[in-house]
Amino acid sequence: MKIQDFDFSLPTELIAQYPAEQRASSRLLYLDSLENKYHDAVFADLPEYLRAGDVVVFNDTRVIKARLFGQKDSGGKIEVMVERVLDDHHALAVIRASHAPKPDSGLLLAGYVPVTVLARNDGFYTLRFEHETTVLELLEYHGQMPLPPYIDREALAADESRYQTVYAKNAGAVAAPTAGLHFDETMLDRLRAMGVSIAYVTLHVGAGTFQPVRVDNIADHTMHYELFEIPEETVNAINHARLNNGRIMAVGTTSLRALEASAQVHQGLVAAGRGETNIFITPGYCFQVVDRLLTNFHLPRSTLLMLVSAFGGLKNIHAAYRHAIVSKYRFFSYGDAMLIERKS
């Protein structure tokens, strides 16, 4: 397929710059891909689309304050976006600078943290933080919340909580699993009370989620690897639901990718454990685990739009997005939600 198949025109005023006043007050567009139809709802109605015995799978990754500022040894200003914390003193990062730093050169971040550039590969730098404090602690003290590039403002104090799910637990992501931002504790309690099982995976969202597709034929695109973990409790919940006609709903494309990546390796079954994946889901993919997907509205020409097009059908997604634009839904990370029934 061609990249143009996943293009659309979006008025800039529909790109949400701030979260809704209340997490669960967003709108919800429901797409029934089996019937090729959609209708408008509100997120507070979500329990009406679920039943006892269903499993809702969340990504409990926690966003780290991955953006740091500093300078090169030469004095040039730089911006460092940590992609992945490798261990206590090493990280992969994207560096913005007027001239790219060279291997074995030095950086000074946050005014006092010395860093050595070890290598550069595929646009990412391997950095060694020459400080007794761990990378995660340094980011917590000196980093900024890494809001997506389409949010045209500086991060505010409020973003430290609102660009984080209420169930965030395991630090490591540089972007929020944004479908989960709609949930508050009240909604989680409502789901539990009606007999819906709540389960978790961890997938640390990388900066690659914002990398544009730069090829005309999408089959030539390569995804970056991301770390994920699936606990035994989640596997048990999914298996129990499968035996009792329960449905599996992934909250966000990251939860879906973790589950489907595991199934690819384990002959269609989800297995407990850790791994990393660069799974690239496009139309024609055969889903093995997830029955329904709760997600936000995604960027034109993005791998996430390709994923939802695979899940709901390309024509259905185009039609639903046209309706969302005409109906002035709010798009992207701080925008409204979409619930999709799998095409097949």
Keywords:
6-stranded antiparallel beta barrel, 9-stranded mixed beta sheet, about 350 residues, about 30% strand, about 20% helix, QueA-like, single chain, alpha/beta
Task: Report on the architecture of this protein.
α6 (303-312) crosses α7. This protein has a nine-stranded mixed sheet. Strands 5-6-7-10-9-8 form a six-stranded antiparallel barrel. β1 and β2 (37-42) form a beta hairpin. It is α/β, with parallel strands linked by helices. It has helices at residues 135-142, 159-162, 185-193, 232-243, 253-265, 303-312, 314-326; strands at residues 27-32, 37-42, 55-59, 61-63, 67-72, 77-87, 90-97, 106-109, 113-121, 124-129, 170-173, 197-203, 226-230, 248-251, 273-277, 292-296, 337-341. The longest helix has 13 residues, at 253-265. The chain folds into two domains: 3-63 and 160-341, 3-Layer(aba) Sandwich (QueA-like), CATH 3.40.1780; 67-142, Beta Barrel (Thrombin, subunit H).
Give the C-alpha Rg: 20 Å
Task: Count up the helices.
Answer: 7
Give helix % range: 10-25%
Low-confidence runs: none
Structural class: alpha/beta
Quick summary of this structure?
The chain has 7 helices and 17 strands. It folds into 2 domains: 3-63 and 160-341, QueA-like (3-Layer(aba) Sandwich); 67-142, QueA-like (Thrombin, subunit H, Beta Barrel), CATH 2.40.10.
Structural topology:
Elements: E1 27-32, E2 37-42, E3 55-59, E4 61-63, E5 67-72, E6 77-87, E7 90-97, E8 106-109, E9 113-121, E10 124-129, H1 135-142, H2 159-162, E11 170-173, H3 185-193, E12 197-203, E13 226-230, H4 232-243, E14 248-251, H5 253-265, E15 273-277, E16 292-296, H6 303-312, H7 314-326, E17 337-341
Parallel strand pairs: 1-17, 3-12, 3-14, 4-11, 14-16
Antiparallel strand pairs: 1-2, 5-6, 5-8, 6-7, 7-10, 8-9, 9-10, 12-13, 13-15, 16-17
Helix pairs in contact: 6-7
